[in-house]
Design goal:
Helix 4 (about 50-65) packs parallel to helix 9 (about 215-220). The two termini are about 10 Å apart. The strands form 3 sheets. The protein has a 6-stranded parallel beta sheet with strand order 7-4-3-8-9-10, with helices on both faces. The protein contains 9 helices and 10 strands. By secondary structure, the chain is of the alpha/beta class.
Length: about 220
């Protein structure tokens, strides 16, 4: 079985290459651009923007090989019927979910700010998962779509590392998927949170999964 360099030990690639999929989590304008929800919470959105070039390269690598790609978007219905009051009200920030912001209503499906950034825009043949929670499996068709494609290995990327990325990876681990978190294709507003998440994921022999780099992954897939 082919492997790629990773921590805590080499990540085993599936024998059938189409059994591996790229998951790009929440690379949305609301989180990455000034005027969005992340900015409204007082975060430095430039930290998240820094991973875009590397993630573009990784995405193109998967596209070149015709491998499955899934994009997730955290969003809610316009009437907020799928948004718990506790989620909407928590934090006491200037703008909350559903409020009107510079790019439309915050985290509302169909609003300009809720879109995936243009640099990573999904192609028509790629999957888009609309999720109302932090994890990509909760109240979404992701599990059914992965099973229909025969996917067993997930390459996890996106933002933020300690929230939606980690939640999705733990959900996937509980469902039996072999997961690799790409260290230079994920980011947090808080660098110490990212580092802690990487260490938690690969602790105790990879209790949640593996971590590795985009370059190592692309080299392994090409080989």
């Amino acid at each position: 079985m082919a492997e790629i360099p990773a921590l805590p030990y080499p990540y085993p690639l599936p024998t059938e290459q189409r059994a591996i999929a790229l998951i790009i989590i929440d690379m949305q304008r609301d989180f990455l651009e000034p005027g969005g929800f992340g900015d409204a919470l007082g975060n430095d959105v430039s930290r998240l923007q820094a991973i875009v070039p590397t993630l573009q390269t990784l995405l193109q690598g998967f596209r070149n090989q015709g491998l499955p790609v899934f994009h997730t978007m955290e969003c809610h219905q316009p009437d907020l019927s799928d948004c718990p009051v506790s989620k909407r009200d928590r934090g006491k920030s200037t703008l909350t979910i559903g409020d009107a912001g510079p790019m439309g209503r915050i985290l509302i499906r169909g609003e300009a700010g809720n879109d995936i950034i243009p640099e990573l825009a999904p192609l028509p043949n790629e999957f888009v998962i609309y999720k109302p929670g932090k994890g990509a499996f909760y109240n979404t068709p992701l599990q059914e779509q992965l099973q229909a494609q025969g996917i067993t290995h997930l390459i996890i990327t996106g933002v933020t590392t300690e929230v939606c990325v980690q939640t999705t990876m733990r959900e996937a681990n509980d469902r039996g998927y072999e997961c690799l978190l790409v260290e230079d294709c994920t980011e947090s507003y808080f660098p110490e949170f990212k580092q802690s998440t990487l260490e938690m994921v690969r602790a105790q022999g990879g209790i949640v999964g593996w971590t590795g780099t985009a370059a190592a992954l692309l080299a392994g897939l090409s080989a």
